[in-house]
Amino acid sequence: MSFVFFTLIAKNQVFSQETYQDFNPGKIWKDNNGVHINAHGGGIVYSKGLYYWFGEHKIEGEKGNTAQVGVHCYSSKDLYNWKDEGIALKVSDDLKSDIAKGCILERPKVVYNKKTKKFVMWFHLELLGKGYEAARAGVATADKATGPYTFVKSYRPNADKLPFYTAQTPESEKVNCAKPANKSDGFFCRDLPGGQMARDMTVFVDDDGKAYHIFSSEENFTLHLAEMTPDYLGHTGKFIRIYVGQQTEAPAIFKKDGIYYMVGSGCTGWAPNPARWFKANSIFGPWTYMGNPCVGPGADKTFGGQSTYILPAPGKKDAFIFMADKWEPKNAIDGRYLWLPIQFDDNKIKIEWSDKWNLGVFK
């Protein structure tokens, strides 16, 4: 009897430690414990031979759209198979805390600061019981990639700061708070004293070590790209507005051959919509709208997903992975991950659906 029992345990362990050799977009993706990965709206940082995936930990039902647990962390050597590293940033039981249990904490992104030797996590934060009106950026730090992360502060960026403009920018395109030219300018000027709204977001570290915070602002009408302080814990006050008034969310950014690329989405709540992409020769623009990068069946809805991050493929030159979430707001924990290869054609990007693929697609 004991032998049979041991055999059953062994079989269960083998099953729970199922290994992957491919990406299977939209399917259940199990971790080393056999549990579907719980890291939604996520981002990845690479450190000492391991990839660390951070994302929103969700629970069952609609309640899972609020932060009941915190930010989950997983590690991997190959991007296919992930080890559960636990909760990197826990929400607080103190209801007065900015990150109180039940707040909205979305799209966590972690970067490593080589000067301070700190891992720095930024996220979109909405205060408990305030719906989406707070529109803050939150930041936490840790000494190790897996944490634990200590919450530092949350706020609206760049209070009393006007956008940076290149010398070629015509006066008609500059914001004029004495006479706002449109609805989006009006929101910008309204929020000038207290700082700009910061919702869907990502963080990008350039080749020179400078970091940038890209976020939906002005009631989600306009993207902001803002330079961060050398310690990555604040904003310098230098920022630009991108695609003013056109309602862009879910920014994800990367750089190839000196050109900056960004993918985002429109604003349709949890429902999918066509992706959009932009490119620029300078981080501070001008950024040019380039249309929908997705092609083929399902392209008009980004294959059911929404962008969250773009990851350089390991061991490959100029190869990048588009990471998106397929949201399930009625049962948040069942959200799926759509990872797809980005293709290039004369500095234009293309994303096609694939039921199954692996890193071998990159030359």
* Secondary-structure element string: HEEEEEEEEHEEEEEEEEEEEEE
The CATH architecture of the domain at 28-155 would be 5 Propeller
Q: Give start-end ranges of low-pLDDT stretches.
A: 1-16
How big is the Rg? 21 Å
Number of strands: 21
* Strand line-up in the sheet with most strands: 17-21-20-19-18
By CATH reckoning, the class of the domain at 28-155 would read Mainly Beta
CATH level-4 homologous superfamily of the domain at 28-155: Glycosyl hydrolase domain, family 43
What shape does the CA trace take? globular
By helix and strand content, what is the structural category? mainly beta
Quick structural overview:
The chain is mostly beta strands and 363 residues long. The protein has helices spanning 2-16, 183-191; strands at 40-47, 50-56, 70-76, 83-90, 104-113, 118-126, 136-142, 150-155, 201-205, 211-217, 222-228, 235-242, 249-256, 259-265, 275-280, 288-291, 294-295, 306-312, 320-326, 336-345, 348-352. It has a domain at 28-155: Glycosyl hydrolase domain, family 43 (Tachylectin-2, Chain A).
